[in-house]
Design a protein that fits this description.
Layout: H1 2-21, H2 39-64, H3 68-82, H4 90-121, H5 127-144, H6 148-158, H7 171-210, H8 218-232, H9 235-245
Length: 248
């Protein structure tokens, strides 16, 4: 993968000066609406639009099936607890959450590549078999992080009756169960992050009240102490370590 990326960058750097100095005109791409006498052309257009719609939603769908949901919610709770408003920025939090998600999901991605993608590219298995094998590690990851009560909720709502084995569960049942389990876990972690910060706010507010400084916002005084406490305990290291170990 790294070798292909390097070759692509080198090829782009070589081709750009050649294209800039070449006398041949650049290709032009245009889109238009024309009449067609063949009904299959219209069907093909609808299929392309449907595919583009699915591809536009694919990142959101994949994100909801990974560890990204829990991580980004915990980061936002942490920022709110520290009362630092827009620091770190959303771009930094999302970027860190994405890289942590890649780190956590690496075994799943590797298994998909070894069991499904590479055999399919080598024409050893069919497309349906590749899709089935690719879904196995994803299902296993989500089921390991999903609570039984959440699974049972969607099983009862779906009305399929009693499910004997996990293999009988469909993705339409597993995915929403996994999402609400991740939300509950993230909110529990956020509550624990708020407790020491809330205690510090109460101590500062009590001190300001005893000094008669009722017009001074306690958050303005407590925020530096929150940051100091967070740095002294090496907060980022502890939070990232806890989040990663929570998926092991």
């Amino acid at each position: 993968m790294n070798k292909c990326l390097k070759l692509s960058i080198i090829a782009i750097l070589v081709l750009i000066p050649i294209m800039m100095t070449a006398q041949t005109p650049f290709p032009k791409i245009s889109l238009g609406v024309e009449e067609s006498e063949n009904p299959t052309d219209f069907i093909m257009t609808i299929q392309i639009l449907a595919l583009m719609t699915i591809l536009s939603l694919a990142p959101s769908i994949l994100i909801m099936m990974t560890s990204f949901t829990r991580i980004i919610i915990v980061f936002h709770f942490l920022r709110a607890a520290l009362a630092t408003q827009a620091v770190p920025s959303n771009q930094i939090l999302v970027g860190l959450a994405l890289f942590m998600t890649l780190f956590i999901m690496k075994p799943v991605i590797t298994q998909i590549n070894d069991d499904a993608l590479q055999p399919y590219l080598a024409e050893e298995i069919t497309q349906d078999e590749a899709i089935t094998k690719a879904g196995v590690p994803v299902r296993h990851f989500m089921l390991n992080q999903t609570r039984e009560a959440d699974l049972q909720l969607f099983i009862d709502l779906k009305g399929d009756g009693e499910v004997k084995t996990r293999e009988d569960l469909t993705l339409s049942t597993i995915i929403p169960s996994f999402i609400i389990s991740e939300l509950k876990t993230a909110f529990q972690i956020g509550f624990l992050l708020y407790l020491p910060m809330l205690l510090l706010d109460m101590v500062v507010a009590s001190v300001l009240l005893s000094m008669g400084m009722m017009m001074l916002p306690p958050v303005m005084i407590s925020m530096p102490f929150k940051i100091l406490l967070f740095v002294l305990v090496d907060g980022w290291n502890l939070i990232v370590k806890s989040l990663v170990e929570g998926f092991v």
